[in-house]
Specification:
Blueprint: H1 3-14, H2 27-33, H3 40-53, E1 64-66, H4 69-75, E2 79-81, H5 85-90
Antiparallel strand pairs: 1-2
Helix pairs in contact: 2-4
């Protein structure tokens, strides 16, 4: 077996199935990313797609996300940092 094949096989085993478990979004989050169950990583990705599509990143500090009407319900405030995003989303995924 070549070194590349051994590395690929080892990395495939390291994938954490709990990490990729599909989770159901809450009703509020479903308005933004859809209602079908998806892994947490995909939920964050879809949230970023929504943020970029609607130009919700703060112009002066790109690490901040300004909430529109749909996101205010999820965030519970007008602005959050990109570092808070995954923590906030985890409350809306079950």
């Amino acid at each position: 077996m070549s070194a590349a094949a051994a590395t690929k096989k080892a990395s495939a085993k390291k994938a954490n199935s709990a990490f990729m478990k599909p989770l159901k979004p809450s009703a509020d989050l479903a308005k933004v990313i859809g209602s079908s169950p998806l892994p947490r990583t995909e939920a964050v990705k879809k949230m970023w797609d929504y943020i970029k599509k609607h130009k919700l990143q703060d112009a002066k500090n790109r690490r901040n996300i300004n909430a529109d009407e749909n996101l205010k319900v999820i965030f519970k405030k007008n602005q959050v940092t990109m570092f808070e995003l995954a923590k906030i989303l985890s409350k809306h995924l079950s």
